[in-house]
Amino acid sequence: MSFRIEQKLMINKSQIFDFKKWIDSKGYKKLFNDRKVNSLYFENIANSIFLDSEEGILPRKKLRVRNYPEDKTHEYFFENKISSPEGRFKEKKNISKTQFEKIKKYGYYDSLYSSCYPRFYVTYSREYYDCKTSRLTVDTNISYKDFKNKKLNKKDSSIAVEIKTNPNHSLDDLLQQFPFQRIRFSKYCRGFLNLYC
Fold first, then answer.
1. pTM, 2 dp
2. Is residue 72 exposed (0-12), middle (13-18) or buried (19+ Cβ within 10 Å)?
């Protein structure tokens, strides 16, 4: 389990040029090549994961299987993202394609949310940046697709930015220098709202 100090923010597509200039001014360098990310999110029959996230309930979780379709390794990762009063954590484990197919078919039992089943996919393109005090990712071309009904899909024109720092640096200090409106961004919640509400 890894402790994370992070903030997810949303910027408008029209701001991307100014945002890239801000990245350069803060000394961020491209960490490695962009890559496509695909995540399958799980939910219980009461939609408790979505509702807890919208209400800010603690503790809460998000359950997903993530893969990188263009990577030659074709690896799958089961990720359990936990928000607690102590902070945010992520548990991540490598699973085989056979295990993934089994989870898709039978669901996953979680200690907090009981039986959870595949709900929808989130796909996007991610850019990675790094500087001495923090790492930053930029997600574009975000789309949502229902697990069962592939015709039920939506695109999101917004851009998601995530800033992560290590415990020795203040995220608040960095965010005070962020020259854009700070709007909370949860791909899971936006996907749910776009597809089902």
1. 0.92
2. exposed
